Amino acid sequence: MTMHASGTFEVQLNPQGQDDKAQDATLGRLSIDKQFHGDLEGTSKGQMLTAGTDVEGSAGYVAIERVSGTLHGRSGAFALQHSGTMTRGAPQLAITVVPDSGTGQLVGLAGQMAILISDGKHGYDFEYTFST
């Protein structure tokens, strides 16, 4: 059975040292710190890699974050994998629970998360299941 969780989060992205720069794209590396509220209450820490281009509104990123907390009262942790692109301002984003990453009462968690941004505030919409 598919379940649904939603709420808000605050995020802090901190630039990290860069190992290399390509001539035609700006590469970046950032740490991620989040605080989730709502149906998912907890924190996450992660790493993000970014690539910008000379074309306005075109960029890409990948990230992995480890979420710890409670999801509808079930406590544990799990990992999220991000893959995002922006093509001349048109976004495409996939955030997926890393298979078999759930711990504690979140063992068997699978799902997809969407990030919603409205009036500068961040929200999430999380559709998930548990394997039996």
Give an overview in words:
An eight-stranded antiparallel beta barrel has the order 1-2-3-4-5-6-7-8. A hairpin with a 1-residue loop joins strand 2 (26-38) and strand 3 (40-52). The protein is an all-beta fold. The N and C termini lie close together (10 Å). The chain has a single domain (3-11, 26-130), classed as AOC barrel-like, CATH 2.40.350.10. The chain is globular and about 45 Å long. It has no helices and eight strands.
The main pleated sheet reads as: 8 strands, antiparallel, barrel
Overall average pLDDT? 93
Question: Cα-atom Rg, whole angstroms?
Answer: 16 Å
β-strand amount: over 45%
**Helix/sheet category:** mainly beta
Using brief descriptors, characterize the structure shown:
single chain; 132 residues; mainly beta; AOC barrel-like; eight-stranded antiparallel beta barrel
